[in-house]
Structure formats: C-alpha cells, structure tokens
Amino acid sequence: MAFVLAGGRGSRLRELTDRRVKPAVYFGGKSRIIDFALSNALNSGIRKIALATQYKAHSLIRHVQRGWNFFRAERNEFLDILPASQRYDEATWYRGTADAVAQNIDIIDSYHVEYVLILAGDHIYKMDYELMIRQHVETGADVTIGCLTVPRAEASAFGVMAVDAADRITSFLEKPKDPPGTPENPDVTLASMGIYVFRWDFLRELLIRDMQDQNSSHDFGNDLIPEIVRNGKAQAHRFSESCVRSSPDAPVYWRDVGTIDAFWRANIDLTDFTPELDLWDRDWPIWTYSESVPPAKFIHDEPTRRGHAVSSMVSGGCIISGTDIRQSLLFTHVKTNSFASLDGAVVLPYVNVARHARLKNVVIDRGVHIPEGLVVGEDPEADAKWFRVTGGGVTLITREMLLRREASL
C-alpha cells in the first residue's frame, strides 16, 4: 500500500496556502500537486492508498473525493483519507511524519499488507514505484530510500546520504554544511526524496518504539532513518532508475514547488516548446478531478483588440476576449477582457481580468477580480506596496491584497 503524507502547510508559498494545504495547491492548468503522487501510485499498480491530512485540509479532501472516487472496495482497492483525529490522546495531532503513520497503525493492520510505501504529497515528478519496491525486496533492505542526485553546492537544503559502491547507505545527514559526494562522482550528492519502502511488520515495531521515546521528534528523516542506518540495512534507490520520461534521453524531472518563484517557474516551464515534464503522455497520465467545462474561446480580431495566446496553455472554460496573452498558463474558467495583456502569468481558476490591465510575471490566486487598468510587473517598488513581490521578481496577487488596495484608494 501507499501511505501519502499530505498534511504540511507549505508556509513558503505564503498566501497561496492561507486557505489550502500545499498538496492542494493548483498546478499545470487543471491538476493539484497531490495528483502527482497519487497518479504515480495508481500507474505503478498500487490500488491501496491512504492519505494523511492535517492543516486546512478541506479543499484537499474535496478534491480527492471528487477526482479519486473510482476505487472499488469489492475489488480490494481503496483510497482512504486519514485526518489527524487525536487518536493518540485528546491533545495530540500528528506530531511528525512518522507519527502520522504511527497513529494509524490499527488501520494499516486492517489492510493486511506486506509492504508500505511512504510518500510525500507535495512534489512534482513522475516515477514508477514498482521498480523501487522490487529493489527493496531483492536487496533484503530494512528501508529503501528514493534519492535525487544533486550538486553538492545545493545539497545542504536536503537530508543527504553517503553510500558505498552497492548503494547501501552508510550515513544519513539532515541539511549538512559539507554534504558527502557519491562513490562515482565527488561533486554530486544523493538527497532524500522523502520516499521510503518498508516491510510493514518491521516499520510497525519501529513506530511503536518511537512513540514511546520522549526525546524523539517522531520524524522519518530526523529519527527513524538514522536509526536504521546505524543498526540495520538502509538502501538507496536512485530516481534516475525509475523516473518516467517521454524519451530515453529526456532529463530527470523532479520539482519542489515550495516557493512562489519555484511554483511560477515550474508552471511557466510547461509552456516551453518541449517541456521537461510531459503532461501529454497517455502511457503515464496524471489523473485529477476534471470539471465538465466548454472549450476555451477566443474572440475579437482587430488590430488593437485581438483575443490570442502565444506559447501559452489555456484551459477549458476560459474566454479570451480581445486580450494579448504570451507565455502564460491559465487554469479553468479564467475570463480576460479587451485591451488587457498577460505575459508570464500563472492564473488560477475563476479569475476575471478587466479591460486595459497589464500583468507581467505574476501568480494570481483563485477567484481574483483584476480591476480595470491595473498594471503589475513594471515597477517592483510600486507593486510591493500592495502585493507580494519575490526575490525572483514574481508578484503574487490575492483577493485580500486587492481589497486592501481598493480600501486605500
């Protein structure tokens, strides 16, 4: 079975997670971030899935209920939602990633599974988990950890590991100042993806001991994994061996869209001529909740009032009325009006852009109504007075920000 951890707030996404948990944040025109971990599991042949939720989970739960309700109990398959429900005592929510699993031991016992795949629900990637599980069984490891290969200079932001020539993990370090290299290349480091495979009987015993340890932070990366590395057998599984790509020479793709800049970049990258993330692959689809919406519509064809989009993705239900759109990604039910322009815009669902607005390098939250003549992206100092401007020059616009602006005018 797959146990998906989807309770993290994602505070670095700032106002985008004021109302929703990070795994419920929109991505790619019609999906949510959680859809990637769930789709990978389903496409890998895993039809027993549990989803642990905690922080502001309503939109996540609603999305899963609407878009992932095709599992059938009579076929011995399920997607169970496990909210933090004070199962340990009346004052304790999920205290860490390991505790989220530990508090549901009795539920997992009822599934009668032999292996448990632990997944983070907040990353963008395509991976065949079957290959990782197969390696775990063949090596007889106590835990197998999914690993990215990253430059040593960037590895200090991750939990990293040193391995021997057979990829057995010899040490596991959380965000070290001097990360170790790999046996074949001292300039790169293996970083944890937060993906683990265990035999359930082994993990169950480990979790029970951890729950009783008052000095533990009840976290896989901080507590359980280092203990297994010291006293058991921990094996690394390299993501390059199971990454699902559109062609053999395509690059390995994994993104943590945990900041506004990273979120904007990953979405805008999808408008490239050949994006690194292939959303058109019918052999490894990204499943999601699909609304019943009409096709996108483009209207007006005059020299200064032409509805068109270049190097962009425009979702169903959109109406592009006399607007110039370039290298932008529009989610469902976005309406733009005459003489407006969007350049480098990531526009979440149900946004209305009024006439003469000019928006460049922006992320616009769901349900925002952009007022007539608003200009954003040309004067960072002026933008920062009302909106959130990132170090990378991306401006986030939300309803609350616009209300404050309007109240002061």
Key attributes of the depicted protein:
nine-stranded mixed sheet, alpha/beta, 409 residues, Spore Coat Polysaccharide Biosynthesis Protein SpsA, Chain A, UDP N-Acetylglucosamine Acyltransferase, domain 1, single chain
Structural write-up:
This protein is an alpha/beta fold and 409 residues long. It folds into two domains: 2-271, Spore Coat Polysaccharide Biosynthesis Protein SpsA, Chain A (Alpha-Beta Complex); 297-407, Hexapeptide repeat proteins (UDP N-Acetylglucosamine Acyltransferase, domain 1, 3 Solenoid), CATH 2.160.10.10. It has helices at residues 34-43, 58-67, 97-102, 105-111, 129-139, 200-211, 220-231, 260-269, 380-384, 399-408; strands spanning 2-5, 26-27, 31-32, 48-53, 78-83, 115-120, 124-125, 143-151, 159-163, 169-174, 188-199, 234-238, 254-255, 297-299, 301-302, 305-306, 308-310, 313-314, 319-321, 324-326, 329-330, 335-336, 341-347, 352-353, 358-364, 369-370, 375-376, 388-389, 395-397. The strands form six sheets. Strands 1, 4, 5, 6, 8, 9, 10, 11 and 12 form a nine-stranded mixed beta sheet that branches. Strands 17, 18, 20, 21, 23, 25, 27, 28 and 29 form a nine-stranded mixed beta sheet that branches. A five-stranded parallel beta sheet has the order 14-19-22-24-26, with no helix packed on it. Strand 4, helix 2 and strand 5 (78-83) form a beta-alpha-beta unit. The longest helix is centred in the middle third of the chain and has 12 residues, at 200-211. It is globular and about 70 Å long. It starts with a strand and ends with a helix. The mean pLDDT is 94. Homotetramer. Keywords: ATP-binding, Carbohydrate metabolism, Glycogen biosynthesis, Glycogen metabolism, Nucleotide-binding, Nucleotidyltransferase, Transferase. Alpha-D-glucose 1-phosphate binds at residues 94, 159, 174-175, 192. It comes from Paracoccus halophilus. Involved in the biosynthesis of ADP-glucose, a building block required for the elongation reactions to produce glycogen. Catalyzes the reaction between ATP and alpha-D-glucose 1-phosphate (G1P) to produce pyrophosphate and ADP-Glc.
